[in-house]
Each structure stands twice: as C-alpha cells, then as structure tokens.
Design goal:
alpha/beta; 6-stranded mixed beta sheet; 3-stranded antiparallel beta sheet; 20 helices; 45% helix; 12% strand
Length: 396
C-alpha cells in the first residue's frame, strides 16, 4: 500500500520538534529572542486541512483533532469552527502561539525551563550591578550558563576591581586582586573582557584587548635553550650549564659571546661540543623572530638545521631577519656524503623560499626532485666527528 505524504494537520510532536530546532538548538536564534532581535510572539501554523485533504485521509484528521484536544496548555492554541462535508461542523486547532520567553521555555519542557530559571538568576545578579551587561551576557550564553553563584559573585568583584593601566610592568597573574584568585581571572578572560568593554565604553577593544588595557606584560612565550659552549661564556651566565629564555627577553639580552650558533632542534643543541667564545641557541624550531635583535649585528652568527623543506624555510626566515648569518651543514657536500641516512619528510613545504642562496635553492630543488627516494637529512643523522670539524672550520 502506498504511504500518503501528509503535509497538513501538524501533530504536537511535530510542532515541538520544529520549535525546539528553531528556537533552542540554533543558539543564535535563542540569543536573538532573548535580546528581542527576533520578537515574540512565536506563531506556528498547525496547517488545518481542507475538505479534500480530510476526505483523502480521515484517520489523520481524527488523530489531529484528538491529540490537540488532549494538549495540556490549551491557552497557547487558537481554535476555529469549520464545516466539512464528511465530518460536518468541527472545532479545528489552527495556531500555536508563545508570547514570551517564559512561555517558550515552559513549552520546551521542565529541564529546559529549570535551566533557564537558573540562568536568569545568574544574569539578574549581573544586571543588578549594571543593567548594560545584559546583551553581552546573552551573547556569551555558553560561558554564563556554566557559572555557579560563587563564580558569578567573583566575576562581579573582578569587574569592580580592574581598571585601565593597573597592571603596568606586571603579569596578569600577579594583579593585586582581593578575595579572588588570578587563575580564575585568567580562565575567564573572554567573558571579563567583553563585560569590561561595556562598562568602559569599548576601550578594552580599542586598545587591543584586556592585557593591553590593564597594561600587563604578555606572558613569556617562544622559549629557547641557551647553552654556553666554553668556560668563559658559562661563567658569564652565572655558571649555568644550560638555561631557557623567551624570545622577547632574547631580543634585548646581549648574550656574552662573540660567536652565536643557532640550532633548529633540541637534541642537536644538547650534543654540541665545546667551542671557544660561543653560545648556542637551540630548540626553537621555526621560532627565529628573535634574530632581528640589534645586538646580533656585531656577532658572528651561524644557523644549522635539518636539510629538508622546512629547514630551508626556517633558514630563509633567519636570513631575512639577520642577513649576515652563515649557513652550516645544509649544503650539497653534506647531503651527498650522508644521503644513505635520509628519510621521508611527512608534509614538506612546497615552495622555494626567497632568501636562500642560489646553492641552497638548487639543493632544495634537488630534494624535491625525488632523486634520492627521500627528501630529508636530519641533523641527528650526522656523525659527531663531521659536526665538530665543520663547527671548528666556521670559527676560524
């Protein structure tokens, strides 16, 4: 028997699914309802049938009438009397109307209703402090609905305490907050920034975000290993055999050696031999931005990385930032001598970087040609005696 395609007489479960999908599951629609961008009431036609439709499927017609008659919230329904040839005069449900957010959430069921009651309490605590916060709270609904009452009070306390420039020359986590830990501040930066922006005439956004508005220092990032390679340089670095610096510090700190050796990978840096008046900076991978430091202009500086596409890309960036940098063991001699130790680079860089020498570009093209059935020679694959010889030659 052929199934009839019924496009009239929406049943309660169909209407519920439709409203939940449009008004709850699509969160932007929900936010727009709560901020009155999408205005109430919500009106859903129940698609009352015509005479012809009733005659084709009287069973569905009876189900349509019966299920809506049993619907518990009759105040949301609009009924209309209509005369049908088959059934005579009938009272037909034609429309479901929800006039407010509270009616919408009640209609969507106890769990959603309770969730929104809890959310309303949180929002009311904020708006009691400042009513202007309401729209931004709604736009950050996923964050707000997870807040406990204590967390809500903590956020308001933070809003009261923070002011422009109060973090000058200090880090965010060292701000002198009262009764609230700064980890909580850091974990809720997105919401706090948005709320402060409202309270301070969008000045947080105008200056580039919360950290800049507070005047705080950026957290250190781009850490690199620093290893003195002789007794003289180690003594100048408080006798530390190895240490780490972030890239911003390294931009300003003049390392106490005439020779600076930049190494792509950590293990190759750790394995370096003793070298006179030399300090190695390594383990940064493609973090070479510190090479634009002014203090490097008076140094002898060299770069040694993997012979592969990304190694040459990093080298190109290093040469752009520090034009007098020399290249070590990234040449045809090295590749030809140890090509049996080559491997496959998983996701090679496809272009030819612009700041390479003609020999380096030729070597990268050779790698990309597939001549060796491999396309990389890692630093770690070179024997120590070869490395020592090349480093000593560089220092002469």
């Amino acid at each position: 028997m052929k199934t009839l395609n019924i496009n009239w007489g929406r049943l309660p479960e169909e209407v519920y699914a439709r409203i939940k999908k449009l008004e709850w599951d699509q969160q932007q629609h929900l936010k727009d309802r709560l901020t009155n961008k999408r205005k109430f009431p919500i009106k859903i036609s129940l698609l009352p049938p015509t005479d012809n439709q009733v005659m084709k499927n009287p069973t569905h017609f009876r189900t349509f009438i019966e299920t809506w008659t049993q619907f518990s919230q009759q105040q949301w329904l609009t009924w209309q009397s209509k005369k049908y040839q088959t059934f005579g005069s009938q009272r037909i449900p034609i429309l479901l109307t929800l006039k407010s957010p509270s009616e919408l959430f009640k209609y969507l069921g106890p769990k959603i209703e309770q969730k929104m009651i809890n959310l309303e309490k949180i929002i009311k605590t904020f708006t009691n402090y400042d009513s202007r916060l309401y729209p931004v709270l709604i736009q950050h609904l996923p964050l707000v609905e997870q807040l406990s009452s204590q967390q809500t009070n903590n956020l308001i306390s933070i809003l009261k305490q923070l002011s422009a420039g109060m973090g000058k020359n200090s880090y965010l986590r060292s701000l002198p907050l009262q009764e609230v830990d700064t980890k909580f501040l850091e974990n809720n930066k997105v919401l706090i920034s948005a709320l402060l922006d409202v309270l301070h005439n969008e000045n947080v956004t105008k200056v580039g975000g919360l950290i800049k508005w507070l005047g705080c220092l950026d957290n250190p990032k781009g850490w690199l290993f620093i290893k003195p390679l002789c007794r003289k340089t180690q003594t100048a670095l408080a006798n530390l055999p190895i240490l780490q610096m972030d890239q911003h510090t390294l931009l300003e700190y003049n390392l106490p050696a005439q020779n600076i050796l930049v190494i792509e990978n950590i293990q190759s840096g750790l394995a370096l031999p003793s070298l006179p008046d030399c300090i190695a900076v390594f383990g940064g991978g493609n973090n070479v931005n510190w090479l634009e430091a002014k203090w490097l202009k008076s140094k002898k500086i060299a770069y040694w990385g993997d012979i592969d596409s990304w190694g040459f890309k990093i080298l190109s960036q290093a040469k752009m930032l520090c034009p007098h940098i020399q290249t070590l063991m990234m040449d045809k001699e090295t590749l030809t001598r140890y090509h049996q130790s080559m491997s496959i680079e998983p996701k090679p860089y496809s272009d030819i970087p612009s700041n390479l020498s003609s020999d380096e570009k030729e070597l990268l093209t050779l790698l990309q040609s597939g001549k060796f059935n491999a396309n990389r020679l890692e630093q770690e694959r070179l024997p120590n005696d070869y490395i020592i010889t090349k480093l000593q030659q560089w220092l002469v």
